[in-house]
Amino acid sequence: MVNEVLPDKSFVQRIGTFPAVGYPLIFGWRKGWVPVPKGVAKVRFKDGRMLRCDLSDSTQRTMALGLFEPAESRLVKELLSPRDAFVDVGAHIGWFTTIAAQCVGKDGQVIACEPYPPNVAALKENLALNGATNVRLVDMALGSRPGTLSLGFDADSGATTAVDWGGPAQRVEAPMTTLDEVTAEVAAVTLMKMDVEGWEAHVLRGGSEALARTKHVLIEINKPVLKKAGSSPDELYALLRSSGFKTFVPVAQLGLRRLLPDDDLVNVLATR
């Protein structure tokens, strides 16, 4: 059963309003000190967006509290303006997609790429909840060439990856295309966000034309997962430099990532 969760009477929303309570709660869930909630909630945030979140899912619980990647969320809002184009590679259930859809307005364009079927279903519902008619959903993986891709998944919907870390029962096949293909009709991209759990180099190799028309790239650098994928941060930086990006600035961590610092995981803003 789906609960309608509104700011003035929502336990989830009240906790999200007070990060000093919300972050310890997330920490308690992670450690097993606090029982994990169950069910699905539709949460309305202060900026007017709504998201359907599965409260049994770690990433989506953080989103439901309004505490997901606050520094990156603020950065997206600062960089995007009406009529801009935004590309979300690894759109998940639509956190950044819905932020961008608000920022670029009805005359702007958002392309949301997400291959994992359960995330796609939730993303479609979240786009409908927000009336996001300026979003084009691409329910495919991106890579260096068209084909198919085997995705591994576990209990956290935010950890779906092409990196070989699970057995056959934990994998699903997805169609694959390229970044150049899905952006072929976009004249210029103001911002591209990329978080594909170690698969970033393959996406970049299939997107040289798109990257040449892109002003900023917000990309996750996850050293352990990149290593499992046979890649590295240096490879990602080299691929971005070859497409004309010259400045790479780590995003100052806020919220949960500031409380739980991890030198192996950082989001970086690449700019021309």
What does this protein structure show overall?
The chain has 272 residues and is α/β, with parallel strands linked by helices. The protein has two domains: 1-67, no CATH class; 69-271, Rossmann fold (3-Layer(aba) Sandwich). It is 35% helix and 25% strand. It is built from twelve helices and 13 strands. The protein has helices at residues 11-17, 19-31, 58-64, 70-79, 95-104, 117-129, 179-182, 200-205, 208-212, 223-228, 233-242, 255-259, and strands spanning 2-5, 40-44, 50-54, 85-89, 109-113, 135-138, 141-142, 147-152, 171-177, 189-194, 214-222, 247-250, 265-271. The strands form three sheets. The chain has a seven-stranded mixed sheet, with helices on both faces. It has a three-stranded mixed sheet with strand order 1-2-3. Strand 4 (85-89), helix 5 and strand 5 form a beta-alpha-beta unit. The chain is globular.
Q: What share of the residues does DSSP label as strand, in percent? A: 25-35%
Large-scale geometry: globular
Low-pLDDT runs: 1-18
CATH superfamily of the largest domain: Vaccinia Virus protein VP39
Structural class: alpha/beta
Tell how many strands the DSSP assignment holds. Answer: 13
Tally of individual helices: 12
Strand order of the largest sheet: 6-5-4-10-11-13-12
Q: In CATH's first tier, which class of the largest domain applies?
A: Alpha Beta
The CATH architecture of the largest domain can be given as 3-Layer(aba) Sandwich
Rg calculated over all Cα atoms: 18 Å
CATH topology name of the largest domain, in short, is Rossmann fold
Q: Roughly what is the average pLDDT, rounded to an integer? A: 88
Instruction: State the separation between the terminal residues, measured CA to CA.
Output: 47 Å
Q: Estimate nothing, just give the exact number of structural domains.
A: 2
